[in-house]
Amino acid sequence: LVGSEMCIRDSIWTNSEEICGNGIDDDNNGFIDDCHGYNHADNTGLDLLGGHWHGTHCGGIISASTNNNIGVSSISGGNNMIAGNQLMVSTVFGKTNTGGFAEALVYGADNGARISSNSWGYTSPDFVEESILDAIDYYNNVGGIVIFAAGNDNSDELYYPGAYEGVINVAAVND
Question: How many Å apart are CA 109 and CA 112, to the nearest integer?
Fold first, then answer.
């Protein structure tokens, strides 16, 4: 492993009820081999990176190990003396498919995640699927916090799910 992958290796969440790589849903949660999360787009627990690197970059900002003289230090990563937070991977932009957005939120909530960071949103204003809002509400009802990107359109229009009252909407005002 190199770069940000090396820095977040020790911060990846582990499903202790699942046996990695045996092709069986050991914990009977409906997901086979979900040892460190699940690729909801491609329907696999074995390939969690999907087709993009963005999640690894964001995960490193939050959970990269500190005081190890490698790469960066994050805002809540642990070190060999203190445990940091854990990253659960829920991929919705896979290598071959895109999807499972609501399912990924419910999966996280059901497996103990308490913060869901999402760098995606709909590309048309005022559009959202009810299943997404229901999943956000479900996540919030189990004590979680859901964060979404505002979008990249420099617009006063409402882009969901970031515009939904049940989320924290993150935006930039400049490069």
Answer: 5
- The token duo for 146 is 């859901």
Helix 101-110 crosses helix 130-141 at what angle (to 10 degrees)? 10
Distance CA 39, CA 62 (A): 20
pTM of the complete model beyond 0.85:
yes
Phi, psi of 172 (to 5 degrees): -115, 155
Backbone angles phi, psi at 101, to 5 degrees: -65, -55
Between 63 and 121, where is the model more confident? 121
Q: Which tens digit of pLDDT belongs to each residue from 75-106?
A: 666 666 666 677 888 999 999 999 999 999 99
User: CB–CB of 127/160 below 8 Å?
Assistant: yes
In single-letter form, the type of residue at position 105 comes to L
- Judge whether 77 and 63 are in contact, CB under 8 Å: yes
